Q: What sequence folds into this?
């Protein structure tokens, strides 16, 4: 996997929330229904910093109630209406290890 | 604050302060625990109050700093600034083993269930808690291990000693049973 | 091999129960993540980039075949079918579920294994020479002492909340295969003038952002006083080590700021006050533990094997494997075989469940059922009859594990890097894969000869890049991965820290840069010179000139 272009636009990028699920550690995303999904496609996008703050607040409540660990904001962009992660770390996080061979994403 | 002493939830009759003015009001009322600084600056005045005195050592204050006076304290409180700051474990062992301190050794600050056995084994025999609800959990923690590898101050025979058949297979002691001198 | 007695079994079972309780309290919400984190770390459970990661201790790198089968079973049942062997002789699972971890620990306990103190600011898994007990140059088997330290350090009442993690390595041989000078405490066994065994005690080594080689604190410590001396060092460190800045909290920083002489005075003063006989084990207990490491029942064999010589003459690939992967054994007629986890293009340190099981079988079929893990992330079969080497090599070939590259340029140590690790700046594994593919020609690898190349994905230096002949460190520059190269590091008894050669290379330049470095060596070397010898003779300049020629 080539992750060559990972430049992150500086301002007013859309953001979304990711975390790990407490029970199994899976990477999850906060959805528009105030729920969590393993698919980044389902994430709730916050178009501006103000909306992002609200989203983070919402996610931290989930963390305080247990069930999810370490929620944080990350930058996304939309490709044909579908959200994709920006930045190398988050790209690897959504796609799984870039090392190929027999390693797969958790099912 | 709720206090566990010698395995039981008890009332804490001690006041604590690092302000000498406060010592002057508190001391006539009852036992008072003072900081090392207050002790060093006002030792004679504090002794003149004639009531029971305790000392609080901050993390990093070696017991050597009060070595000559240790017998004067009924309580020595050692502080866990955070869960992960382990200096008080060494202070406790040195107080018990090196200085022969036999009074109450109290853990204050961030005192959590999962540290309790470590504390007991280093010679603490009382634990200041944030809430009384913690007490039961703390006492349960004592039963988690029957025996340990290292010699310590919880009165249990060590695994190496048991292997040699030279230790009584002692049952877990109640939290804060008086420290023995097994090293 | 050490076997648990009733007390060890009970202790580990109690630890499993304790941790299961901690997990249950976390899941029920009684513990917050902030409270749970130090607890899970003390049991080797991390939360990484994608999932939890569980690090299981392989004390001093020694495994029995049934233990390796259990590791395979865990990989298959609770993980994605593979495990990753690390530089500290541990194995890591990359995808366990929190709710499964108590079950995994219970399964490990069945085979006398655990994850105790594989992380956290405590005394970590004790590492040792992977050739302990079989190397021809050994003074005494270091595993007896490593096991004694393991027991003493396990949930130590006083030293479980140190300023920072604390690593101890032990070797019983003059050739240092355990990177002892890279540890907080390195113990090297030797004999004094009277022939008594003792340790050279080295302190304050470490990798990370400030790489420092350990300095000798004491030339000779009688082996029977080891624990009280360690206790003295740890007590001084626990009280005086810095806790205000995690980058300055390791013992190495204390040694640097105090000076090793001043530290020695503090330690000796503390040691003098620990009453004799209260902590150190009596000789019977040491002998009891040593008996577990007694040599297996070797057959009397001639040292030469005509079958081996014939196979070497007949098969050049086998000959190459013997040349790089087979090591001298102290017992005539036997050899030590290194199984490389680094096929060209593979993931250094990874082994699948099937591979682990097959190696367990081979260890029983051709050895005494024992396997070692080396800090180079390879597996070692310590007791192979020379006559069996050819059959072993063929069997390894079927597993895809017969790469003839131990100690060669494709024997790369690589940390998990950004593909798995939460702290990473850059990926390490794909870089290792790319570089090792460049050097997949056997003749060329043999031509290059002995060399070490280690790749870390961030300054924590888990892959020990500072002490590699060629070190590669991943850095992040404005969102792009770059790789900084150091040259001249050495990890053996002549340990040295490498120096940065110049500006970093990007992901697509780094393999070329490594080839350039190798080419300079091949052009400049004198007959019989290894890479490191040439580098030490000619210095960095010729390498710089070639690497940055067009700038
Ligand atoms: S060196 Fe850095 S990236 Fe590599 S495993 Fe260690 S912490 Fe992670």
A:
């Amino acid at each position: 996997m080539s992750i060559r272009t990972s430049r992150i636009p500086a301002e007013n990028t859309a953001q979304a929330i990711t975390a790990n699920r407490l029970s199994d550690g899976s990477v999850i995303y906060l959805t528009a229904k105030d729920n969590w999904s393993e698919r980044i496609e389902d994430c709730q996008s916050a178009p501006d910093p103000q909306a992002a703050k609200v989203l983070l607040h919402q996610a931290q409540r989930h963390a305080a109630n247990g069930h999810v660990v370490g929620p944080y904001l990350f930058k996304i962009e939309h490709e044909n209406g579908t959200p994709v992660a920006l930045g190398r770390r988050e790209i690897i996080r959504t796609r799984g290890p870039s090392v190929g061979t027999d390693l797969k994403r958790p099912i | 604050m709720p206090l566990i002493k010698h395995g039981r939830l008890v009332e804490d009759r001690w006041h604590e302060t690092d302000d000498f003015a406060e010592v002057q009001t508190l001391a006539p009322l009852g036992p008072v625990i003072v900081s090392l600084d207050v002790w060093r600056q006002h030792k004679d005045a504090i002794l003149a109050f004639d009531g029971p005195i305790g000392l609080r050592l901050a993390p990093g204050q070696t017991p050597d700093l009060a070595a000559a006076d240790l017998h004067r304290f009924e309580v020595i409180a050692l502080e866990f600034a955070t869960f992960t700051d382990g200096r008080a474990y060494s202070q406790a062992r040195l107080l018990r083993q090196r200085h022969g301190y036999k009074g109450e050794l109290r853990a204050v600050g961030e005192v959590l269930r999962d540290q309790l056995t470590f504390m007991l084994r280093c010679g603490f025999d009382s634990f200041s808690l944030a809430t009384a609800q913690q007490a039961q959990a703390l006492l349960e923690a004592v039963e988690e291990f029957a025996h340990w590898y290292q010699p310590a101050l919880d009165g249990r025979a060590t695994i190496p000693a048991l292997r040699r058949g030279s230790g009584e297979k002692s049952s877990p002691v109640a939290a804060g049973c008086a420290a023995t001198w097994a090293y | 091999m050490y076997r648990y007695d009733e007390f060890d079994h009970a202790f580990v079972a109690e630890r499993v129960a304790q941790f299961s309780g901690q997990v249950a309290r976390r899941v029920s919400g009684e513990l917050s993540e902030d409270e749970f984190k130090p607890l899970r770390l003390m049991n080797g459970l991390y939360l990484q980039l994608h999932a939890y990661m569980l690090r299981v201790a392989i004390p001093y790198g020694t495994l029995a075949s049934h233990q390796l089968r259990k590791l395979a079973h865990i990989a298959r049942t609770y993980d994605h079918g593979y495990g990753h062997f690390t530089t500290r002789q541990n194995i890591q699972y990359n995808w366990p579920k929190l709710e499964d971890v108590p079950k995994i620990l219970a399964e490990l306990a069945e085979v006398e294994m655990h994850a105790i103190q594989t992380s956290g600011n405590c005394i970590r898994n004790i590492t040792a020479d992977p050739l302990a007990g079989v190397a021809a140059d050994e003074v005494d088997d270091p595993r007896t002492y490593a096991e004694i330290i393991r027991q003493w350090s396990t949930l130590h009442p006083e030293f479980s909340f140190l300023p920072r993690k604390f690593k101890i390595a032990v070797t019983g041989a003059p050739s240092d295969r355990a990177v002892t000078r890279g540890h907080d405490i390195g113990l090297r066994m030797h004999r004094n003038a009277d022939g008594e065994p003792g340790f050279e005690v080295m302190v304050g080594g470490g990798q990370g952002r400030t790489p420092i080689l350990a300095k000798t604190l004491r030339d000779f410590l009688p082996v029977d006083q080891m624990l009280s001396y360690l206790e003295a060092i740890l007590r001084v460190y626990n009280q005086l080590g810095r806790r205000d800045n995690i980058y300055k909290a390791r013992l190495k920083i204390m040694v640097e700021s105090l000076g090793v002489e001043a530290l020695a005075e503090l330690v000796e003063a503390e040691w003098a006050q620990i009453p004799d006989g209260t902590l150190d084990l009596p000789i019977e207990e040491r002998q009891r533990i040593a008996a577990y490491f007694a040599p297996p029942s070797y057959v009397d064999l001639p040292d030469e094997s005509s079958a081996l010589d014939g196979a070497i003459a007949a098969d050049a690939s086998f000959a190459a494997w013997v040349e790089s992967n087979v090591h001298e054994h102290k017992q005539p007629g036997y050899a030590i075989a290194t199984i490389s986890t680094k096929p060209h293009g593979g993931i250094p340190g990874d082994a699948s469940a099937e591979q682990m099981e097959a190696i367990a079988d081979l260890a029983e079929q051709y050895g005494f059922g024992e396997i070692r893990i080396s800090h180079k992330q390879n597996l070692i079969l310590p007791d192979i009859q020379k006559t069996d080497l050819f059959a072993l090599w063929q069997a390894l070939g079927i597993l895809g594990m017969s790469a003839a590259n131990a100690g060669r340029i494709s024997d790369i140590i690589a940390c998990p890097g950004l593909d798995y690790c939460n702290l990473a700046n850059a990926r390490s594994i794909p870089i290792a894969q790319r570089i090792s593919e460049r050097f997949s020609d056997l003749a060329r690898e043999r031509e290059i000869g002995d060399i070490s190349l280690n790749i870390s994905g961030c300054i924590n230096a888990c892959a020990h890049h500072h002490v590699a002949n060629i070190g590669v460190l991943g850095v992040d520059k404005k969102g792009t991965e770059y790789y900084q190269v150091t040259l001249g590091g050495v990890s053996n008894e002549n340990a040295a820290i490498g120096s940065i050669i110049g500006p970093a290379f990007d992901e697509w330049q780094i393999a070329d840069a490594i080839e350039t470095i190798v080419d300079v060596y091949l052009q400049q070397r004198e007959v019989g010179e290894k890479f490191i010898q040439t580098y030490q003779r000619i210095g960095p300049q010729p390498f710089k000139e070639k690497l940055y020629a067009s700038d």
User: Anything to note?
Assistant: The mean pLDDT of chain C is 96.
